Task: structure prediction
Amino acid sequence: MSDEQRNTIWRFAIIFIVITLGFVAVLVKIAYIQTVERDEWLKVAEKQVPTVRPITATRGNILDCNGRLLASSMPQYYMYMDTRVPALHEKKGALFTAHVDSLAKDLANIVGGHSQAEYKARIVQAYRKGEKRLKVCDHRINYLQRQELEQNALIKKGKYRSGIFFEDQHRRIKPYGLLASRTIGGIYGEGGGGNSGLEKRFDKELRGEDGLSSIQKIGGRYESVTIDEAKDGLDVVTTIDANLQDIVENALLERTALRGAKWGCCILMETQTGFIRAIANLDRSATDGHYFEAQNHAVQRVEPGSTFKTIALMAALDDGKIDIDDTVSVTRQPWKYFTVKHRDAHPMDTLLTVRSALAVSSNIALAKLITRSYEGSANKFVRKIEKMGLMDSVYCEIPGADKVRIDVPKDTVTLSKMAYGYSVELSPMQILMFYNAIANGGRMMRPMLVTAIQQNGEIEKRFRPEVVKSSICGSRTLKDIQGALHDVVWDNHLGTAAKKAWIGNKAQSNLVSIAGKTGTAQLIIPGHGYSGRHHRMTFVGYFPEENPRYTCICMIEDPQYPYDAGLDCGTTVRVIAEKTMAYTGCYVYRNGERVLDKR
Result:
């Protein structure tokens, strides 16, 4: 072997030994790091992991039918200051010293809560301590206040020189205050999900999708970097008209306050579509007696009283059990039927037709007519009502709405009381839905509170009017019932909502024709049964009678004496009808005469 070959072999051997030693050294270092230095390096790694924070999506708006805000998430801000930023300490704190007075002055003038001197003392103390996150203001500021503060000379220099930064929070507000408050609903705290009303029903759409951001060190500074953008919630467009809502609430408030009632409820529905244009619920405060929206009585079932008489008569007429011109005798004295005595609120000794029995709202007449028609076959009476569509599960969007309760009576005595609205339970919304069908030529519409879901004005989903029942009864029955409801308001001799010389117009208007029905039901007092001194009053009607555009119900619970369903609830509906017609312009003038615009 030559010297050159031997030298080559030695060179390769040396290289191999060096590589092997280097590899062994790496393995030893890895083992050392994984054992001896393991905890130290884990701490370093933890510091390098970016802090992930959620980006809260802005909750969508709830709008009225004209696009006005009923509920919205408005941005508000917390103002913080990092007093450690280097720029504030350069040249012995020249920048801080030059601007601290003007900053304190602007805070006192724009935000308030403290004087200029107090703000300056707070900021200077934090500066000396080197506070990282001084909460400059005690409470959140609004967008306009932030805009004004951002004109301050120090804040204009940006957060890396001034140390000042803002963190946004969203607060749910209702620009119209308590207007339709229970129907709009509420949310859990700030930024929480819906807990009632439309806020709860459409929580998924309104909520949106939160995003993600992380705090990372970039170029020696910590920056917030967006990982996943938040998707703001969708807007819910309601059927409510804020102007009509205001009309309805004011009319209801005036009458409930006048009577010192426990609560009042009023709903205005568009006849052809079923759109709810206004819905008001007012409860009397136990502390100071003022009224506010506490419960959604519109969807809570109660015994309807005499408004159920229309339903009972429709069933008997449509089954051919009675005719509208049939007669029934009534007396001043109670009519005893087995163990129950039936009494009239307007007692008289006379013979009434079926039509006039409804106009005068005779309990005796209805009890006699229904028991004679369905005695021994009460189940047929209830089944007939079911066929009218009143008990269909199709209902409005308010969560927790009660269902109708109309059970098959086990005895004829219960049937006789059902004839005029006891032993059955309906919500004001369900009563309204039925009377709206009468106004709408027999076609029952589902009550609707929402017409669309949209994003930035673009429709994502549309909700159209929905027919619950194409016809609730035969055409002749419908005509007979409509005639009887006309008499309730326009028969000045018998009508319970007609004009009376010693009382006034009640539901009878000189400006718009109204047809409808009154109802008065005794309340159950726990431990005492039905009370003759505590009542629930109702009037439900539609207008203009000749071409119905709207149906309205007013219900007032436990008014103080004196009270009258026709006077109190009938007057409320009349006021609403007159103002609604004026606002919507349903009437036009042709040749100097005011006529209904039938377009």
